[in-house]
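<context>
A single protein, sequence plus fold
<entry> Chain with its tokenised backbone below
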Amino acid sequence: MTTRCLLHVCLVLLFSTEISSRLCTMLHFQQNKVNKESLELLEKVSGNFPSQCINERAAFKPTQNVVQLPVSQKENVKVTIQEILQEIFNIFSKNLTQSAWDGTSIVRFQSGLYQQIQRLEACLRAQMEKGLTSPESEDLQLTSRRVKKYFQGIDAFLKEKQYSQCAWEIIRVEIPRCFVLIDKLTRRLSN
């Protein structure tokens, strides 16, 4: 009886690893789709940038240009994309009450991010089991710190502006730059 249970567990693990591997091979197609949908939803939530926020735009000075993040090793690309998506999800899960945005579009935006984060995590788990990704690599740790620093700057800006409508609009215009980086990284996955 115990041997039979153990056999079932081994088969489930074997098939889940195989499914995760297949998800990994399709990841760049899924990521392209999520990027496109996310950008469309960000545009849709509010429309044009409010004229009353133009003067405040200069107040937001990112700590670094997110598009310039170095990711030298191909195996670290997925981890970096996952971290960026997680940080975007975290930002857009905070105090949106003053944003006056379309709630349905925000929920769809958050849902798309969450689903892709889950896919990436499953893929990364499969890669770590096979020893293809090392979370301890110096390059990955450096990139991770830079991603966190960039999003800490966004979070600090929102807090400083007390999550005002203009602060959210400025961030809504900034976040597509993250998707430019994700798109650039995603192209590396398909090569």
About this structure: The longest helix spans residues 103-129.
